[in-house]
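hey all, quick one before standup. I had two proteins in the batch that finished overnight and I want to keep them in one place so we stop losing track of which output belongs to which input. First protein below, input sequence then structure tokens straight from the run.
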Amino acid sequence: VQLVESGGGWVQPGGSLRLSCVGSGFTFRGSSMSWFRQAPGKERELVAIISSLGGTRNYADSVKGRFTISRDNAKNTLYLQMNSLKPEDTAVYYCYANTYWGQGIQVTVSS
């Protein structure tokens, strides 16, 4: 199983980023998928989760209305569109599926 994230980086407050996660080695279209994040000195937290066919999505209260989780099962790819970013969104973001984790990707929001 491999989960490979991309799309992170540095952005100013109010900016946007889109994270991607390509999955392989498992039945992507049959799996619910999630994004987690971990800020320095804090526990890893769930950001968003999407059902296998994309019909159900849930978000942490802290990102509701700003982040959108989506997936393209034809491309085995999970996305996280992040808008109106805040400094408190700074963290390493992880893709998660079937007890497997991606390697994580850094998102830094600062001026």
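OK second protein, same deal, sequence then tokens:
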Amino acid sequence: DVQLQASGGGSVQAGGSLRLSCAASGFSFDEYAIGWFRQVPGKEREVVSCISETDGTTYYADSVKDRFTISRDNAKNAVYLQMNSLKAEDTAVYYCNGIPAVRWGQGTLVTVSS
């Protein structure tokens, strides 16, 4: 059964930090680039950051560049998103998924209060 479970969300004040985790199972994890995505109600899901399968190449949306850091541990089938200097506009449900998409999980809610 393919699963990608995001966790680590919560409520923080602006300027704070959170670390999201994505636990994957049921597919060849190290053969997929993995992305973090976020969605605000009423808006389209957007890509936040991605990391390549094995060589660590990363991508960040301009809105999170220099504040967020993506990493992965293929031995643990896990991907992480360290989020620093959080802003109110980072408030969203965050999801992880393979690229190309494998399966959308339930996501984890991040709420940043100003």
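Flagging for whoever picks this up: The radius of gyration is 13 Å. DSSP finds no helices and ten strands in the chain.
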